# Entry
Amino acid sequence: FATLLSVGCRKVLGREDFHVRPEARPAWDSQQILEKAEQLLVYHPDLILVVLGTNEYVNRIVHGKALLPEGLRARWEEAATHSRFLVEAFSTQVLDTASVSPGGGDFARLVRQTQPGQPAMGGLPIGPRDRALILDRMQQGVRRLHIRCKEAGTRLVLVQSLQDLKTFPPWCNEIERTTPEIDALFVQVWNHPRQALLPRLDALLLRYPDRPDLHHARGRVLLAMDRPKEARQEFLRALDLDLAPLHHTTEVTDAMATVCREEGIRLLDLNDALADEHGITGGARFLDAAHVDLEGHEELALFLARELSGKEMPALPAGYEKVFRSAIRQHLASEVSEETQETGRGRIAFNDAKYFLFFGNFRDAVPYFERALIDLPEGETRSLYEHTLRKLGVPGAGGRKR
# Structure
C-alpha cells in the first residue's frame, strides 16, 4: 500500500518528486521497525509513517522461554542466576528469526515434530511480566523516535496495523490437549454459525473460560445472530487470550494509543479502511489475519491519502479518487504477475497452515492446507496435509468440509 500511495499521489498531484519509500520487512517487531525508521532520518524525509501492532511478541515466542519468570520461586531463581542479563540483551538486540521462518529448514523440522496441542516452542503462554516489558520497550522506542524526528524537522505518524477479527482463528489455544468435544463444536461453528450452538458454547466456556477459540467461535455465532457489538468484544477477547499472540491484542493497541496521546503523536488505524460500521474487520479483501489482497491494498492507499491530505502531505484536489484508483490499477496490471495473482492466496494459506502446526493447532491448519491445495502444486502441501490428518486421527487425504 505504500507503493500504491506513491503511485496514486504522483498521478493526482502531477509531481514526480513525490516519493513514498516502503522500508518494512516481514515479521519485524516494533524495535526493529523503530530502529529502521530512525536510520531513515538521514534522507531528511518530510514524513515517517510507522506501522506497529503486529508481531510485537514474535521474537519472544522464538526465544522459547520467559524473559521475566512468573511466580516467587521463579523470580528468586532469576535473581540467583542473574538472568536479568537476558532481559537486557533482548531489549537491545534483535533475535534471529530466520531459522524459524516458514521456508527455513529448522521450521520444517519443528512442524513435523509438533503434536496436536503441543507447540514446537517452549515458554508459552507469554506471561504478564514479559508482556509489560515488551510493551514498555515499544513505548520507549516510539518516544525516542519522536524526539529524533522533531530534531530533524520530520513529521511522525503512527499507524495501527491490520487485524482480521471475524474470520481468522487464534493461533494457539492449548498447551496440553484437552477434549475433542471442543474441536467438534468449533468445526461446527466454522461451517455454520447459528444460534442453536450458543448454549453448548456457553457451557464449555464455564469449564474453559480462557479458551481463545471458544471466544472466537462465540463471536461468530453472535455475529450470525446480528449482535455485532457483543461479537466484536468476543473477537477481541480471543486475541487477548491467544497463547501465541503473533498479532493484535488490546494491550498492544492500548499501549500505542497511550504513547501517542502522551507525546502528541497522530495515530491512524488501517482497520478503519476495511472495517464495517461496527468496527469489525475480516472476510472480503483479507487473505489472513494481517494480510490483504490487491483490492485491500488499494483501499489502504486511498485511506492514507485521504487521512494525510492537506495535513502531513500536500492537499489532494476534490474528486481525486477516480484518478487515484485508475493510476493504482494500471500500476498493478503492469507490475503484479499473473502467477502471483493465481498463487498468492494459496501461498499465504500454506504458510498459515504451517504456523498453526508450529503452535500445535492441527485442527485449524486443515482448512488452510485445503485452501492451499487449490492453488499450489501438491508436493509438500499434500504431504503436510496428510500428516496433519493422521495426527488428528483422520487417516487418508480426502477433503474434509470446513
Remarks:
- The CA atoms of residues 76 and 331 lie 59 Å apart.
